[in-house]
């Protein structure tokens, strides 16, 4: 019983909050989710080993952090249940305690009348018993603390479920390319742009989504902050990049295909012959002898792109720089180098309905709870013939009465 | 156009400075007249500050809340506006010197940052932008003013004001109410940020340093409120608590941006 009492106590809740705070502090100071070797290289002495050994590099998925959140949820669950059970009891006992003026503060008859007038003017609800008038306001505020704790509990529960049940996969999609998602949904990138009509930076893709059972497909534009939700999937404009574009044409048959390349690849013509795509550079300089020197820079703007390839045409490989529009023939296949193309990084998230909606509903609940708690303060004032007392969570009303009585006294002294 | 903006900004800064000097003179001479003039000058400074905020918003076509300078400038304006409400609605004149100084210092910090107007980056173009960052301005300003109330409490206590007297209890109560406003708005910040993050990055919580420090700030103030409401901690202990916590708020705003870059690094 003692253990359960401790588990539900505010003291335990505060200890847990301090531990969550300590974990958050450590997690903010140590970069998360990098390769173990990174910590070994960047932390002196054996600190790297310690960070990795204690799991501080993946702190928020460690067993101890998850246990901490679990215990906090249990504590909140008890708090919420207990609070709910106590609300009506607390309110009723406070109201009935107002009717007993034995421990009230002394005032004169005139002051009592003045106070009664003041609260009547402020439109408090009033009831009378045993020569005591009880003024009350904001009784809904008694539920504030309960609603806050319930909201927080639901956020932890639904937040955990959403984090656990969401699956996220990133795809790099080239224009006109179609990819097939795990459930058979077809996702086609119709176009991608990095500027709007006015030249302002804006990353936007026009995508086509076709579910396996659907007769027709749906076309939508996705931008940063404007994802598209369709059934259980949510499509995000996540990133973008640039890829080399090479068209391979079979001279004999006339058949052709365009390849978008971001990493070292081999485009085969016949047998072992073909071209190795090595790299794409954003710009180059050319000297008097016509030699090309590529410029290496971190950019997404390619004003003078140049391809670096190895041509494997029978005996050995020959390094060459190719400009957009250039082509090279190897056997029956002609490789034409096109202007580089932007690809769109599209994130596809499996949305765990209805937990996400319930999570957002919990957000609203906790805000309502805070408002009830702090801005709808339950107030009770009992005024007898020569005594008064206050209750509820509004300390301000006590101060207001004292200031009112003080001001009244000063006015009558001056008179 | 930008030069006019700079002139308005610097004029506001100077007028705030004059208001502080007058406040200092009025505290030393105990003359009500100078205090009244100081209040008038402070209102003028806030009006200029507000004019700067509105002008910048009109020129940029959005609320000026997108980088460190704009947030610091708005933070200072938030302190000024909440302070004016406290004076006008609650007659809390005692907070004047501390609030004036806090608003001025925050504006000085803003003055040290690059002021050019930049295009709003795509990640910030969202309907959540105004609510998320606007609520942060109100929240941080409330916490800073609560710290100001804490300073006033401790100074008056040292001067011999009785701890159970109406004056100190009023200051204590104000400090608590400001924390209540601050934590409500910080909750709005965190939760609107979560909804926004889900729209922008697909995850409502990323364990980013800014998110974590907002959570740390929230937990600290939640502990403050628990101790006050349930354990009846009041007075000196809470005054110290609210002063120390201002350091955490400032670290969440400035320290995290400078020392712990992450998804929220919009300098």
**Count of β-strands of chain B:** 0
Unreliable segments of chain A (pLDDT under 50, ≥5 consecutive)?
none
Count of DSSP helices of chain B?
8
Oligomer: heterodimer
Order of helices and strands of chain B: HHHHHHHH
Structural class label of chain B: mainly alpha
The low-confidence runs of chain B, each spanning 5 or more residues with pLDDT under 50, are none
What's the count of strands of chain A? 22
Which pair has the most extensive contact?
A: A-B, 52 and 45 residues
Percent helix range of chain A: 25-40%
What distance separates the N and C termini of chain A?
Answer: 64 Å
What is the helix tally of chain A? Answer: 9
Structure description:
The complex is a heterodimer of chains A (415) and B (267). Chain A contains 9 helices and 22 strands. Chain A has 415 residues and is of the alpha+beta class. In chain A, the strands form 5 sheets. In chain A, strands 4, 9, 10, 11, 18, 19 and 20 form a 7-stranded antiparallel sheet that branches. Chain A has a 5-stranded antiparallel sheet with strand order 1-22-21-3-2, with helices on both faces. Chain A has a 4-stranded antiparallel sheet with strand order 5-6-7-8, with no helix packed on it. Chain A is elongated. By secondary structure, chain B is mainly α. In chain B, helix 3 packs antiparallel against helix 4 and helix 5 (129-158) runs antiparallel to helix 6. At the A-B interface, helix 2, helix 7, strand 7, strand 10 and helix 8 of A face helix 6 and helix 7 of B.
